[in-house]
Amino acid sequence: MASRRSTRHDGEQGIRFSRTLFIALLVVSGALIAFDRPASRSAPFASFRAGFTDVSAPLLDLAAKPLRAVKNIGPYWRRQGELVAENDRLRQQLTEARYWEDLAYRQRDRIEVYEAALDVESAAIEDRIGAWTVADPRGPFVRARLIGRGSDAGIRDGYPVINLYGLVGRVYETGRRSARVLLLTDLNSRVPVMADRSNARAILVGDNSEFPRLDYVGRAPDIQPGDRIVSSGDDGILPRGLPVGEAVATRDGGWRVRLYSDQAPVDFVWVWPFQRVTAPAPEAEPETPPTEGPLGAELPAAQPSGDGPAGREDATQDQGAAAVEASDTDTDATPPDGTATEDNR
Length: 345
Prior knowledge:
alpha+beta, six-stranded antiparallel beta sheet, 5 helices, 37% helix, elongated
């Protein structure tokens, strides 16, 4: 009975260690933690530890695979359900995309017919030039980027720069192998834009914020939140219809634009060569070729008419010169002895 009672007592309270052994183990643990430094480890201990890790790591990974598989059963089936829903959504989007693709082809053909009938030339946009961008911390602008292509690749000042989503900015300064791009959000950026729905004009003004504002929109602009904002091409520098962003109303009654180009980092861009619309040059007056006579001799220039005062004065001088010449001729025809010829009599 005594032994049975002692066994029950040990089972209820567990095995007890002496207080001295507990303190000794605590001191040893603290010493190992305090003196376990990479610089103080001996080479044999470090090599033994590395070898033990190399042997135990594959065994631990192999033992954890069944546990990992059991743990991932729930998330796996939940992911399968999400994939089914995502596939249904993608099929619906693909059907809608095919409809819009067919509509775009029909609109393209219709526009070509209209342009041919009206004899209208579309904007001259050549093949775009791809380039990688880097930051421009030492440039004169706060919001600017540098691209690794320059005039050797056909880039000129003023060319529009776009990424996969929309307009990024325009080329401001061009070198032989690099160029500086002024972003739409910079304080010095001014781009004429319009609402794609209503053709309401405005100026996109950068102010070094993420959402440039719309200025000169008028007192009652026909702009609604979410309207697609595109370039208007009124300045003749950027082509018409480049996607810029969406209109966002502010609390003070103004308008700002959420840029499409901010949907992804501006790492790779395209530069579109665009022929500017410039004023026609003044035409030079054609030179009158000299008039030649029958034998190749140049004829005297035309005398001014006698309608004006200068013409009448020139005619009077010509008549006086003719009278003097006639009197000299009569004097030369009289003989020196004073006798007159039969003709004079």
